[in-house]
Write a structure and sequence with these properties.
Two copies of one chain form a homodimer. Chain A is 46% helix and 13% strand. Chain A is an alpha/beta fold and 366 residues long. Chains A and B meet through helix 1, helix 5, helix 6, strand 2 and helix 7 of A and helix 1, helix 5, helix 6, strand 2 and helix 7 of B. The structure holds a DNA duplex (30 and 30 nucleotides).
Chain lengths: 366, 366
DNA sequence: GGTCGGAATGGTATCGATAACATTTGATGC
DNA sequence: GCATCAAATGTTATCGATACCATTCCGACC
């Protein structure tokens, strides 16, 4: 009579068959399930002997804690959602890496969602993510659909916007001003003597960070009293190496007197430079080229690319740290007041804008 | 008397306050929770009118489905865990992208874990992942710690190993032979006339895929009856551009007569090439260089890099498709027999091994 | 008109862990 | 020696949704 002949969950039991539960462990260790739970979480509050007994039982049964059950009960899922435009951009994957590192230290886990540079897609991803009841959510950029924004505002969890400094943030912010980085870069180009500077971007659309950089360029042109501005838009984001190559050709046709060009990302800068190589246009002699993002190749390609480093990893680490604080505060019932952290950026001067000959041209051939 | 003055969950209720539940929606729509659940999942089995009423109530209340509760009840978490060495390697992030795309179509979500090229770390990540009760798990490579392997075997969910063709797989396999790719590349180098070929890798360790490629190199040297082999090991994985630069210098010192070198990844190939530039060694004239992985920069840098393309995205898509089948089969109670899918690879010939002068050297300067 | 059958919906038990409170145990103080 | 208190452990209710089975409803068919 210990077997229930026909339970309401027959097929369910049949399918899963084994998979020991916490109660099984408890029984085997001769304690209550609650004690097992305590032993598995914080070792304190449990006698070393019972702890050992419990761990032995866990071993014997091959028990694995079920966090989805725990999450339901404790209302702590241990998830933090992170939305980025694309995984294939090393800037963003660096940021995720930084976030992940920090959250790991508290046993929290990252749920990654990619929006493919689309705000509509972002909205969908947010909706999906919220169903997982993350304890915090991190989004890239400060521009979202109205519904996306409203979902984030009413989710009741800490929100961090990164890679931007929105005027009206939803919650916390960890970022920098995309416009300001390019203004700084422009100032440096002036300083190095360039006066006719163009800008290469992707086609306008949802890539607001790219658009902000363009804004920075235009502001700088005005502020510095330059003769003219010239923006070449090629390709839908994500902007690729190819796009840069196409754009630079169009640029030279459009404005033959151009001396330097800023590309919206290092990848398009690389494409531009390579196309110049192919066409025999010297870089930086004929055209100086600068990028954005300080990708690994920017440092190592030839000529190396002048760029703006924004500390993608640091953004992630700061974001992760802030998120941990915000979650702790939220759990304690005292939400953290919105914080705004600005990450410093640096203009890195390299060969692609140098006013002297290439290093390789002066190096002696062996 | 409808309010319970002191419940056992006082603080809990106080903290969360609102957050409507399915029961709230049901009440407002004048139906049972079960009907709400049905309406929110598959629209069939619910009258259009009630469906509308329910959706209206969802809107009004701002209700968001709680999948963690659903997961507990239905034993379907909708998660698939994916373990990769690093997010910053575009090969792996492409694979994740491919997996993600496919799983999205069935509403399943990816849980990403990075192992940092360490088997010990992999074991830890697997343990953590299994606590989330994923419905499937995808790992990179076919070499794991004993405990990791045993955890995967007893998890009771489909397992797919990728980026390799293990001799004794745990479950399914979607990959290619790393050794074979390099053997093919070696054959092509022979065909193009190179006889003195070296290999640049990272220091031996947990990067078994790198090690397999080296094995392929050594097998090819023997099979082709070459004069000698030469392996330069620099840097702990992940192998970087820097490592390639250091390695090529050591290579030239070690074996001045070397004609060509295969690098364990395109990144180190790039580093090697750039270092050659700096030192005035012509590529491919003085030294031909080939890489592995067909990274975006390999196609676009100068000279472009001869490499092996392994279809990272395709691996992901095939893996995702297989995983969906395996999960469907598992849910139906009929586990899929282990399957082994081989992804084709291609040797891509580019300028860095060309036997003729650089395109740029022959192009007319404008 | 009554029965049958399928579609729509409701009721109840349950998934597996944990919060809160209750209880036991052991040690300490006077 | 007994009271007191803290530490260790047990008990119960619950998190929010879903599986399963029961029930209702309505039209069709003989």
């Amino acid at each position: 009579m210990s077997e229930r002949p026909t339970g309401p969950r027959k097929s369910r039991e049949a399918r899963a068959r084994k998979m020991p539960t916490m109660a099984d462990v408890a029984r085997r260790a001769g304690v209550s399930a609650m004690t097992v739970s305590r032993a598995l979480k914080d070792k304190s509050a449990v006698t070393p002997e019972t702890r050992d007994r419990i761990f032995q039982a866990v071993q014997d049964l091959g028990y694995v804690l079920d966090m989805s059950a725990g999450a339901l009960s404790s209302k702590k899922t241990g998830f933090v959602s992170v939305l980025i435009p694309s995984l294939n951009n090393s800037n963003f994957s660096d940021t995720v890496q930084g976030i992940s590192e920090i959250l790991d230290t508290e046993g929290m886990q990252v749920l990654i969602g990619t929006t493919n540079y689309s705000r509509v897609r972002e909205e969908q991803v947010i909706a999906t993510m919220l169903q997982r009841r993350p304890e915090g959510i991190i989004v890239t950029g400060g521009t979202h659909t109205a519904r996306a924004r409203s979902m984030l505002e009413t989710a009741g969890i800490p929100v961090i916007e990164t890679w931007d400094l929105p005027v009206a943030p939803i919650g916390h912010v960890v970022g920098f001003s995309n416009a300001a980085t390019i203004e700084d870069l422009m100032a440096r180009l002036m300083f190095w003597g360039y006066r006719r500077v163009a800008f290469i971007e992707g086609e306008p659309g949802d890539d607001t960070r790219g658009h902000d950089r363009r804004t920075g360029y235009e502001r700088a042109v005005r502020a510095l009293g330059l003769e003219r501005s010239c923006v070449i838009s090629v390709g839908r984001p994500p902007v690729t190496v190819e796009h840069g190559a196409q754009a630079v050709v169009r640029l030279i046709e459009t404005w033959p007197e151009v001396e330097a060009v800023i590309c919206v990302s290092d990848l398009s800068a690389l494409g531009a430079i390579m196309e110049c190589h192919r066409r025999g246009w010297d870089v930086p002699g004929r055209l100086a080229v600068a990028g954005f993002g300080d990708f690994q190749v920017a440092r190592h390609c030839w000529p190396s690319i002048t760029t703006v480093s924004v500390g993608s990893l640091a953004i992630g680490q700061e974001t992760g740290t802030l998120m941990l604080q915000a979650i702790a505060a939220m759990r304690a019932g005292t939400p953290l007041p919105p914080r705004r952290i600005t990450i410093p950026h640096t203009v890195i001067e390299r060969d692609s804008t140098a006013r002297q000959p290439h290093p390789a041209e002066t190096a002696p051939a062996p």
